[in-house]
Known about the structure:
- The protein is 59% helix and 0% strand.
- The protein has helices at residues 3-16, 29-38, 44-57, 61-67, 69-76, 82-100, 108-112, 119-130, 139-148, 156-166, 172-185.
- The mean pLDDT is 95.
Amino acid sequence: xxxxxxxxxxxxxxxxxxxxxxxxxxxxxxxxxxxxxxxxxxxxxxxxxxxxxxxxxxxxxxxxxxxxxxxxxxxxxxxxxxxxxxxxxxxxxxxxxxxxxxxxxxxxxxxxxxxxxxxxxxxxxxxxxxxxxxxxxxxxxxxxxxxxxxxxxxxxxxxxxxxxxxxxxxxxxxxxxxxxxxxxxxxxxxxxxxxxxxxxxxxxxxxxxx
Length: 210
């Protein structure tokens, strides 16, 4: 996609949704980290239901340690892979207490070192919690990057690196939110809703539905 088209692409997304927000509920950087980690292979709606009561009593890594793994599992048992996720949340909480004074670090490598926290999760947390210009590539953004011609790549990391260069800097703060929401509700996997697409004419997808 040409530079002028990329500028127009994000200008329209911003015009349509000036202040996009993630759909996971959280109260601070720590609960955000937990919510994003739990959302792997699960829906945001499902995670929000599971964490609604949990986040009323938990706000720090020490709170999770005090709660204990068994009670944590009771709260998140409706989420897929909840057993392994609970173990990772507990281990990550212990590491945060031991290595970071119970605080979530704004540091990519330190976050990725936590059990259950990968590159995408770290990118999401740093963008939402601290406004860092990161690009968290999930299945929606991976599809969108390739389908539109915005950033084509065979791997998630390749698409991420290309998007970091392709997205105009003044749109980077909200770029990953716009792309996720667009992929989730408009440029859907099986059948994109091109009739409702704000960037239809800028997209290089050959199998458009209109």
